[in-house]
């Protein structure tokens, strides 16, 4: 994800603080994979936001501000964990966050990777963060999100050049 | 949330009048927490709206008018309580309000905090306003919304500067 | 809702013709309440549309045309009754109408009141039009919509001035 | 739907080819009713599209192209039949088509009539095309869509003048 | 799909890598059918994206970049396979992808064909890729998508001329 002719773009990772331990694993999985793909650690910015509803807004503001400074991000991975509770909060937040992240990508022209787990149980979330009770069923989805971010950055950069 | 170089921005709280007693607790939880975080009471505006469907429109109009006056709000907390009834009103209002509040944040560039409870029972709403029958299960979500508002105001202000 | 310094704005009521008797009661409840709140009858325009899907489009066109003529409406109450049938028509119309009315408010800057009942039975609709079998459970929601219209007109007019 | 002072606007009917026999009845019901309401047959354009997902896009492109040519359509009736199958295709297509048609009306300023049946069984669709097993339960909804198109054309034309 | 007076437009196929074998069949069905309809193989571009959430963004960026280069695509077929899992990921991705693809068509003015299967079981997906256990129930939907792409390209090109 080096882009010699531009100010060095960096992937950005945004993540929420709910279910903090699971989120931390997903963030680590994303960051480590980005590094293993050749992205210099100094080129990865990680930003906290309160919850999944704030992810689209924060992504939009940070992507636009970086572009305005002449140091655009190559991609943004929006990471969060939503787990079904007893009210309908899960459904409305999940829907608004997923639609919002789609909109932010389409409006800004920068790739936004959906790193939001929408699980019915906490165990489902742990499995998708590589920390399930059964290692055979565990896989850290942060790995996939990092690969997607690099791939989408490479695909979409020429479309803005 | 002091912003010395700009006209003093204030957080705005919008809230509905349905389920008035629960809403009042949520508003108090938000306001008290904002104050405890150092926001001067004179810098907090509280505005009534009729119901949750009106929250996104009111948020947009007030955020834009304040910015046009040169005294922008730092953030807006939209507070309401929706409880499942016998018709489908709950589902359509909840969905329209959550999508609308997301849109208003993305369109205006000001952080809008989703302070709308979407509950299946009134007891669920009371618990989330810190007034449930079982104190151990009660927590006033207004506290979290105030923290989110301050955090998102700090995160997003430089993106508009 | 008198606005001395502008061309006299009027509230507009839009309503559908499905479930005509129930709609007529809701329109009457809205109109009578607007009058009781001091809105001159000559300042209330009532317009028919075929069904709920047409409400957002009609609201947008009439609000914009009135503004372009220099005689803006202060608010628009969109009234309709949707009742669950055997196909999925109810669900898709309800969703599109509620989202559309939200969008029209946000796009035009004029308050649009959601006067659409989304009921599972006709009796539920009658109760919400003040004509249920059990008077104790009956309440004409048009009364609330009129109050909301006046309140939102007062709240939002300075934001456009 | 004669509009003497403008280039003669025509209603446009768009329809899909899935469930072709039922669609043909709905198109005939719409066209015949438009004629009975005084729209000259030469003023009705009928256009095929592959499926319901294509209706909003085709409506937008044709409405805009006609307006750009100085021969705007007075309205567009988008006709299709969706029937629940074993996958979730029905739900996602129905939702995207209904939202898309709403958006096209709001964006173009031309009335778009939702002539899309969203049925759980084929018999439900036949009944709504006037061809159910029980004639007493059968009614061709194309008749209503034609009436809606004429009504919305009359209502909305002055808003664009 | 030859368009003599313009730079030769090409149909674009975008596809995801999840459920790779089924996707490969759908891509082959689409490509072969485009060829059988007279589209020169050199005029068909096939692009990989990580998953269905990335389809709308990639479609928008590639359609716009091609138009900016003076070599617009005639249409884009977005191909992917989503299968219901144990979390709610399927529902939120399906919804965001279908709405996003609709939006991209409406915003760019280029036809986007929904080639996304939203299935409850893998066997349902295999059947729709022409590889079900029961050949009589198997049909490669790529064939239909190719036909739709050609038809929509022909329908929509004059609307942009």
Automatic annotation (TrEMBL), chains A, B, C, D, E:
Provide the reaction this enzyme catalyses. (2S)-2-hydroxy-3-oxobutyl phosphate + 5-amino-6-(D-ribitylamino)uracil = 6,7-dimethyl-8-(1-D-ribityl)lumazine + phosphate + 2 H2O + H(+)
- One MF annotation (Gene Ontology) recorded for this entry: 6,7-dimethyl-8-ribityllumazine synthase activity
Mind telling me which SUPFAM superfamilies this protein's record contains? Lumazine synthase (SSF52121)
Q: Give UniProt keywords alphabetically.
A: Riboflavin biosynthesis, Transferase
User: What top-tier enzyme class does this entry carry?
Assistant: transferase
What is one Pfam family matched by this protein?
DMRL_synthase
Identify the EC number(s): 2.5.1.78
Q: Which domain of life is it from?
A: Eukaryota
Does the keyword section mention Membrane?
A: no
Coiled-coil blocks: none
The metabolic or biological pathway listed in the UniProt record of this protein is: Cofactor biosynthesis; riboflavin biosynthesis; riboflavin from 2-hydroxy-3-oxobutyl phosphate and 5-amino-6-(D-ribitylamino)uracil: step 1/2
Described purpose of this protein according to its UniProt entry: Catalyzes the formation of 6,7-dimethyl-8-ribityllumazine by condensation of 5-amino-6-(D-ribitylamino)uracil with 3,4-dihydroxy-2-butanone 4-phosphate. This is the penultimate step in the biosynthesis of riboflavin.
Q: Which family does it belong to?
A: Belongs to the DMRL synthase family.
The protein depicted here goes by the name: 6,7-dimethyl-8-ribityllumazine synthase
- The record lists the organism as Polyrhizophydium stewartii
